[in-house]
Amino acid sequence: MARDRGFRVIRLPPYHCIFNPIELIWSQMKNNIRRNNTAPKFSSATIDIIREEASKITAEMWANCVRHSTKEKDQYRARLITPLIINLEESSDDDSDYFDQ
Questions:
Q1: Which InterPro entries does the record cross-reference, listed alphabetically (predicted)?
Q2: What digits encode the pLDDT tens for the residues 50-92?
């Protein structure tokens, strides 16, 4: 269904919330709610605070979280992928470097 609408679904590794920008937004929102909420849990005042905090999320915040997640993903990939360098300049028919003789 996503592909039919021009979207690409990307699976994230479990327990790597740093790769998911919405988790960063949600974390900021929860911290602000905890800091500002003095009402009992699940009261209408708490719901109002949640709505207020959600309305404070800007396109700039999203862009920053996407940029941060992309940077983290790139650093993670760089640690996992070891560069492979093949020297095409040297020619050798001798496989003695690879096999015991």
A1: RNaseH_sf (IPR036397)
A2: 999 999 999 999 999 999 999 999 998 888 877 777 777 766 6
